[in-house]
Amino acid sequence: MTELSTIYKLSLVAAACFFHACSSSSCPALDCWFVQEKVGRGGGLTPPTSQEKSLLYIRTDANSHSAESQEPLSDTSPDRVYFITDPAATLCHHSLSPPKGSIEKPQCEISPFLQQPSNLKWVAPLTVSGFSPLYLQADWFSAALRGVDKELAISTVMRAPTATKEPNVILSVTSKTVSVQSRLGKPVLLDCGFWVDPSSPLSGSGFAVEWRYQFRGKGRLVLAYDGKTDRLADTQEKGATLDIEGLHKKGNASLILQEAKVRHSGTYICTVYLPYLLAQVAVELEIVEPPSLSIHPSPLPLAAPGQTLNVHCQASGFAPLSMELSWEFKGADGKARPLESCSVTGHREAWDGTYSQSTWLALDTSKMDLGTGGELTCVAVHPGGTRRARTSLSIIGLTSPSIEDSMAMVGVALVLYGLIKFVFWTFSSSGIK
Ligand SMILES: *[C@@H]1O[C@H](CO)[C@@H](O)[C@H](O)[C@H]1NC(C)=O
């Protein structure tokens, strides 16, 4: 009996925890900017916009009102306070609610959204039949959010019955990998997922997914999929795929690049279309490949004192371009020190977009205090990691005395001088006696 009642109590506790976790109380209230194009001031290239403080209360269930009892209103106009219902709890992500007092704040922007059909080949089939446009007659909003960890981006489209402040999330598109780094030749996954409110008439009338690439103002279509007719659009891009099954079953629209190339570095925009609606998130990809180094000549020839050796170190196959090349020398004392007398050549770009660059070192064996030789290292500091190439340097024959040697000689001379003085003094004093 006692066991049973314990189990009973435990399950009650578990149920309470469960309900607590599911209730909207775990969702943050989000400080947001309400951004709107200013009306009546047309003309000019960029439409003038206005920005107002806004506050978004999030709940996962329209009937729960616990959200309203959160935090008192700030200096936000009551007109700009929204009570959002997000059944998928996308907006409840922990990176949107940093601990109190933290400096980093999530970013949030909400604006009025204008629904319209698209003429794009892979989107047009969504609106051919035309469903009751009555559903569209409402106040539509879009919100774009970025988490504090710089990993999460969310874009949502919401519908509020006209003149209410209670929008429902209809479509949300999320990426959990806002900035991705990859080595060359490796497969890359750019995360993008979407959720459609199953209770919306728009759900079930098809979707389309599009990935676009942008770099320094230039763009191209990477991939486009019409989910209604199950067709991929023709693109020039090889080795870019979607997991079509995961896309239909779980809304997993992640882009898979089979083999990372330097030219893949840039911004990727994942857009998900529903009839008349769209939401998109951007993902940055950077291909980072550290250099491989080689020293020439290798091995180094024996150097005679007074001779100058020219040593060449080549760094190749790296990206991006930023890299520092330098030389180090480790002598008999085992301490590494930098060598200054080197010059760095301009960079060259290879067919695959990687770079190469060289450094020349003029090793003057008479001036550089190299002793009888040691270890010579070429060092490349690159965002992809630091690389080193080593070779040994031997100097034959006599060498000029080092500082330590000179000091020792001075020491010996002083002792000798003292000794002679002492002997001379002893003799001269005994002579007086
Ligand atoms: C989405 O699909 C890719 C490729 O199949 C997979 O690696 C990834 O884990 C999936 N993401 C989610 C959230 O299921």
TrEMBL record:
Coiled coil: none annotated. PROSITE patterns: IG_LIKE. The chain crosses the membrane at residues 407-427. SMART domains: IG (SM00409). Keywords: Immunoglobulin domain, Membrane, Signal, Transmembrane, Transmembrane helix. Residues 1-24 form the signal peptide. It comes from the Eukaryota. Residues 167-272, 291-394 form the Ig-like domain. PANTHER family: TAPASIN. This is Tapasin.
